[in-house]
Design brief:
- There is one protein chain.
- The protein is α/β, with parallel strands linked by helices and 279 residues long.
- The chain has a single domain (4-266), classed as 3-Layer(aba) Sandwich (Rossmann fold).
- Helices cover 33% and strands 22% of the residues.
- It has helices at 4-18, 23-27, 67-70, 88-97, 110-123, 160-170, 190-193, 196-200, 209-219, 236-239, 245-253, and strands at 78-82, 102-107, 128-132, 145-151, 171-185, 207-208, 222-231, 257-266.
């Protein structure tokens, strides 16, 4: 597997391509990473079409959950979406926050930013904006967001702890996040762990569920809650590219699980971190 910067460039390249693909191509792949399955159905993503604010032009079929459905967004809130893609979650968040709120999408892929801005322009929204930048170092000030959402993005970032720390910085005291992501229970086979395509496909970059939640706790968040927990099944025709017959059977019969979870957590009103002497 490549180093951190090489992985980021891999993801940037893949998601620049994805911005130009049809939704059906992304849905039959691993988070859009490639047309790696002949079984055409949603491997990761869920159906957004019944949610208010849904816009089909912004739905690239890349998510692994419905974080905006669980995000407890109120009228007038400032909402930030991490890894905003073509704007899908931003437009749904805008439906919840209304004309008096503000929605900011952040993505590090130029093609995605351009696509999202074009979608916002067609919709005539003047309180939705898209900023290009890394989600480890967001191009926003501190203590500005009431709510933050993200959909199947943190698993693509090598330094996940830096993202969680910057979420803490950007949220207002008393603000909260709802994030959908891929986590593991048990160890992936080495062939999957080391493959770049599986990293871009949201699998090889996933970490253990316990480590993921501990990272959130240790940053200082409270009321950490799993709002949704869904097992993910990777079809055999994908796994056969990496595993021989025996290894595939061992994986299927073993204790390794791949899950989409939606996690909620709050930044303390007092903004008191563990070890800071005030808790």
């Amino acid at each position: 597997m490549q180093n951190e910067q090489e992985l980021k460039e891999l993801v940037r390249e893949k998601y620049s391509q994805i911005a130009q693909q049809e939704k059906t191509a992304n849905q039959s792949s691993c988070c859009g990473a490639g047309n790696c399955s002949t079984e055409v159905y949603n491997i990761m993503s869920e159906d957004y079409t019944e949610l208010g604010g849904y816009n089909p032009d912004a739905d690239l079929g890349l998510g692994c959950g419905l974080p905006t459905q669980f995000a407890k967004i109120r009228k007038g809130d400032t909402v930030i979406d991490l890894g905003s893609g073509a704007g899908n979650d931003c437009f749904i968040a805008r439906h919840e926050t209304g004309e008096t709120g503000k929605v900011i999408g952040i993505d590090f892929t130029t093609a995605m930013i351009e696509k999202a801005r074009a979608n916002a322009e067609k919709l005539g929204f003047n309180n939705v904006e898209f900023r290009q930048g890394d989600i480890e170092h967001m191009p926003v000030g501190g203590n500005v967001a009431d709510v933050m959402v993200s959909n199947c993005v943190l698993n693509l970032v090598p330094n996940k702890a830096a993202v969680i720390a910057d979420i803490y910085r950007v949220l207002k005291p008393g603000g909260h996040f709802s994030i959908s992501d891929i986590v593991l229970s048990g160890q992936l086979p080495e062939a999957l762990q080391k493959d770049a395509e599986m990293y871009a496909g949201c699998v090889a970059g996933a970490i253990q569920r316990a480590d993921y939640l501990n990272m959130i706790y240790s940053t200082g968040f409270k009321n950490v809650t799993i709002q949704k927990d869904k097992p993910i099944y990777i079809p055999d025709d994908i796994l056969e590219k990496y595993l021989d017959k025996d290894a595939l059977a061992a994986f299927r019969n073993g204790d390794t699980g791949i899950f989409s979870i939606t996690v909620f957590a709050e930044k303390p009103v007092a903004d008191c971190k563990p070890g800071g002497g005030c808790c």
